[in-house]
Amino acid sequence: MTPARFVTFEGIDGAGKSTHIDAVAQRLRQGGATVLCTREPGGTPLAETLRELVLHSTMDALTEALLVFAARRDHLQQVIVPALARGETVLCDRFTDATFAYQGGGRGFDAAVLAQLESWVHGDLQPDLTIWFDLPAVTAAERRAAARAPDRFEQQGVAFFDRVRGGYEARMKAAPQRIVRIDAALDREAVWQQIVSALESRQW
Ligand SMILES: Nc1ncnc2c1ncn2[C@@H]1O[C@H](COP(=O)(O)OP(=O)(O)OP(=O)(O)O)[C@@H](O)[C@H]1O
Ligand SMILES: [Mg+2]
Question: Beta strands 89-93 and 35-39: pairing type?
């Protein structure tokens, strides 16, 4: 049996997370893992309701951070922690690094307060691996424009997403063993090969 693993997918809107998550699940299943795919904010009925509020209602940065962490608390309790306890692999499209990047980097909210919330909500639990899809804000905007109508975050300009990207970079520098940076500006196949290398280097 493969050990429990918690893998998160991070990056600005349009970076390519959703494009690759199913292929990662398939590859890990071929290796014998039982894989659960989920997302944040969301992953439970309550957390999906909070997601809708966060994506579509106007609010200040602290309210936004509290709602995101409330959703995370429910998601951890109902889904992530039980799955890991059963020895499963959990793939999560965004997690706490996104809160540091969006509410911290993007909105300029105090990272020390976010760190306190992080510690209350998930203590020592951190992902075993975080795949950070890094690409310039301009490229992400072009990809999104071709794909769909924007939500509250996606309506923000390139300067906002540059700050979000900076937030991710700061998180990576603080946890370089956990967070692997992928050059997401390359074509799909080249992005996939970088993901495979990250998994292979862990013998996954
Ligand atoms: N390497 C790539 N080259 C060009 N286009 C890509 C690449 N990867 C993904 N795309 C396209 O870019 C768009 C955004 O990709 P995707 O939805 O996977 O991003 P995301 O990171 O999940 O965004 P969000 O955070 O908003 O959910 C999609 O239309 C997708 O087909
Ligand atoms: Mg997505």
Answer: parallel
Judged by phi (left if over 0) then psi (alpha if -120 to 50, else beta), residue 111 lies in: alpha
CA 163 to centroid of ligand 2, rounded, Å? 19
From the CA of 20, the nearest ligand is: 1
What CATH class has 5-200? alpha beta
Tokens of 197: 């290398």
Going from N- to C-terminal start, the domains of the chain cover 5-200
pLDDT in tens, 35-92: 999 999 999 999 999 999 999 999 999 999 999 999 999 999 999 999 999 999 999 9
> What pTM was estimated for this model as a whole?
0.96
Q: What is each CA distance from 53 to 49, 57, 58, 65, in whole angstroms?
A: 7, 5, 8, 12
Residue among 19, 153, 168 whose CB has most ligand 1 atoms within 8 A, to mutate: 19
7 backbone dihedrals φ, ψ, rounded to 5°: -120, 130
